[in-house]
Specification:
The complex is a heterodimer of chains A (about 325) and B (about 625). Chain A has about 325 residues and is mainly α. Chain A is built from 20 helices and no strands. In chain A, about 60% of the residues lie in helices and about 0% in strands. In chain A, helix 16 runs parallel beside helix 18. Classes of the chains: A mainly alpha (about 325), B alpha+beta (about 625).
Chain lengths: ~325, ~625
Amino acid sequence: MPPPLSPVLRVVSFLLGLSLPSFFSPHGHGLSLDGAWGRSAFAQGRASQVPSAVPPPPAPPQVLPPQLQRAALPRDAIKRLKSGDPAQIRSALDDVRISAKAGAPAVPTIVELLARGMPADVTEAAIDTLGDTESEAASAELSWYARHRDVAIRRSAVQALARTRGGVAVNALRAGLSDVDPAVRGLSATGLGALKAKEAIGDLFVALDHKVGESSASIGLLCTLDECDRLAAKLGSQPFGVVTSGIDQALFRFSADVSDDIKLKLVGRVRELGTGEANRFLRGVQAKWPKRGSQRVKQAIDQAVLATSGSPGAGGQGEEGKAP
Amino acid sequence: MKRQVVGAALLVFCGSGGACGAGQTRLSLLSTEWEDDGGASIGRVWQRVGSASIPQSADVVVGIAGQADKIIGLPLGGGSQWAFAHRLDARPVVAGKVVVGSGSGEVFALDAHTGGLLWRLPADGGALLGAGDDGSMTAVTLRRAGGTGSVLLAVGHDGKTIQQIVTDKALGAPAVLGRMVFVPWAGQYVSVIDADSGDETARVTLRAETSHAWTAGGALWFGENTFIRFDEHISDASRGRASMVTLPVRELPGMPKVMPSGATPVPAQATADDKARMYARPVGAAAGAAIEDGRFYATYFRIAMGFDASAAGHESKQGGTSSGRPGRVPSSAEPGKLLWVHLHPADLLGGAAAAGGIVLCDEQGKVATLDANTGAVLTQVDLGEPLEACVVNVDAQSAAGGLAEVRPLAAQLADAVLADDPQLVVAQRMLLRELVALPDETATKALVDLASDPRTSPDLLADARTALANRRNGASYMVAALARHYDFLRDVLRAPPVGPIAQALGAMKERSAASLLAAHLLEPADTDDDTMRAAAALSVIAGPGEVPVLRQFFGMYRAIAADDDIAAAVVSVGQALLTVDDAGGRALVEAAAADATTVAYARERLQAMLSETKPSEVAGTNDAGEGGKKGK
């Protein structure tokens, strides 16, 4: 369950016509995250619900309503944070969350609260709030909490670190790949992709070999030529859905990041499988291929769909097959 | 003297193929109505055959292979390996220079050196119990078909039956000397039967469980777990004054026996009893009887162990005096002390103690000779195929060979307790206690390894952790272990034994370990107990360098301690902060003690701690406590 929101926040939510629990929570579709992050494990709710392999189809990036983007931090928020009264602290944390990045001035105070220690529920709210501020200044304290003995707190901290960014966050998430909790490992893997932590790609491959399926999508977001090929080479040895969650990410990256040649190679790797699930995956890519996307890649996808359409379990012809 | 004729059927008759001497019915034979004659009859036998030379028996390994239908022989003193195909219904035995077996309704004897068949006779479904041989005649006892009563056969090497006695008594394994058959029965008697006449010419009552008679080292012995020598003191046996030697009593895994009962057939295929065995070789001595080399041995599946038997109980008359008081030979050695441990590649099925060592064979058909003093492998030979069971007989042969590298006992013990083999756990627990008793740092390292290995069984793990906490050396190994953390990606799936190590390092005031211990405070994979003990140790050894981690831990858990262990850790860390954090440790602790959100367990103790320590008293006094539960 997402953290409870204060009455004030609920009113604002009502006025804005938003579904706040899914909108503000870092567990919902991230307001400021790119499409890939929105499709990631974080988008699936609590860490316990993190998928082991395939992220859902890409959703259109959500745009932060202007009213909310400009929500200023109430003047007394920091004072309430310092009040020592748990109720006031909670209400102030809600205000900071509404302010999102604008809540950055409250970060040092929240960090200090966390360092001093609070009950579990307020601690989790504070961690989530720090994530919403996307302030790198929070990363150091969050990295401590990413090693907390309470697994729920650890999961929250890892999710928040993926938003506060910075070298400290990357290091903490890399450490999180070795966590004793599978969900923390998965969240850390997803977070490293979101942070574009290219230096972690080696760790992500190791994690993938250790059945941290979320690593695949992050590798797809970060890989260069050889690395993308290395990911595709996992087809056959790793679950299809796990590997293609990464290939999917790579195919939809800008050509400047991943060249058409690499994408053609990836499509070829999937096509070579000649299985029904390969056909279904390719049809999915075909269906969502941007109109302005590379026609050369599009053509390869179309041909691959055709070539695999007769495979057992393919479930019908592809788009191009229907209307050549 | 009252004598009663035993009514139970007892038949003495000649076999069909041989000439009987004076075989006839003797109702007094093996009678339970017999009254002890004070050693008179056995004394006469000693006078008659005591000076007779007892030939050495064969040095041979006999393997049972296939489906217990193949015998493989390997003479140890030189000679070719041989094989003999015959179904077996009981374990073969080596008697003198022959190998005797039974199966498929017959009993047979083979030349131990060549495997050549000497003779075979119908056994009428009887299963072999034991055999003795004096070089010209073999005495064999069989359990009768149906399980009650026994048969004693005396057979010449030419295959002619000299005597056959059928009785309802449970006979044991016999020996032969001067055409006299010494046959144990009823657990306490040895009757001497004239092979030619079939008469029971003497009997002796022994004061130790006896189901075997055998020759070794030029002497005749009786016993089962005690060795009683047939010598000039045998006539005092019923008064407990025979020359005898017993092995020291000590803890051994699997409660092994020196010999199985001779009154029950031993299965042709090895059982767990064969894998948990004791071995020792009695020798004649000035004191009457002693144990060869002062060593006895035990096996437990893949583990062989050597022990000091020099203080074994020697009970004998001294120099034929009539004082008759059993004497215990004084020894400065520790009776039963473990001297070495050998971890073998495969389960050990059988063996025999020899002069200078022990010969053991395993289920893979390998035969190894181990040095009596070190356990080092002296020689190895191979029977060439896996075995179902194995019998080893060594008499003249001495254990000798090129001594391999001898590892210290601590290292040998470490190898044994670290072996990844669940069936060894019982032995490993005993050996762990031996290891713990050693002052070597190697022992500490082994304990660290054992407690860190995810394959270690839970029982052994608990013992290892307890022992590790009480170590007071090997700090470098402990510190090295603390550098490891749970690491999923690097396949480190068990955290090091932080708690026991912390307790030991705290007791040793090992301040160099403080930073590594502090790092474990924030290791979620460590157990609550480990965290608590790490914190307790840090209250003793932490320095200013640990303040940031101590503060962080204190803040993170003072209001979220999930249980009393973590709350105790908070208190210990508070104690450490009071000691080493001049800049604000006391203020931090005071604030927490006054804050209602601090968990009650910790808050109460922090308040008590603050009231007991004034600021001026705290600095530099972090010597108190010894870790562990101190925080509680």
